[in-house]
Amino acid sequence: MNTPSNLRSDTFLGTARAYLRYRPPYPKVLLDDLLARAAAPGMSVLLDLACGPGRVALDLATSFDRVSAIDLELEMIEVGKQEAAHRGIGNVTWLVGRAEDLTLAPSSVDLITIGEAFHRLGQGMIV
């Protein structure tokens, strides 16, 4: 069976730096509104699915104690790590893999985000 191109681990091979540099940033007002709406006492763990080079994870990292960012593509994760180091952000754990395969303990995450990457997730996981 052929894997659909949107679910392959090499779909964006060679583009991670350009992806980080040229894609418009998420507006600060949008991220601030998300944080305000999601605010809950003790909110400290963020999970960013299909994170690419960390555009959401890195912009929200200072609002959380810990951030986990997962992407299918190693190159995206490597660029995200480099950008985190450049910004002095050290609370992000970077994971390479399918978001659908991630195993989490119940109530271990306070907020889950996904940017412009819904199409990168297997739609069979939606309930």
CATH H-level homologous superfamily name: Vaccinia Virus protein VP39
User: In order across it, which strands form the biggest sheet?
Assistant: 3-2-1-4
Structural class computed from helices and strand pairing: alpha/beta
Low-confidence stretches: none
What's the CATH topology label?
Rossmann fold
Number of domains: 1
CATH hierarchy, class:
Alpha Beta
CA radius of gyration is 14 Å
Distance between the termini: 24 Å
Shape: globular
The second-level CATH architecture is: 3-Layer(aba) Sandwich
Order of helices and strands: HHEHEHEE
Number of strands: 4
How much of the sequence is in beta strands?
15-25%
Largest sheet: 4 strands, parallel
Q: What is the residue-mean pLDDT, rounded to a whole number?
A: 87
Number of helices: 4
Give the fraction of residues assigned to helices.
Answer: 25-40%
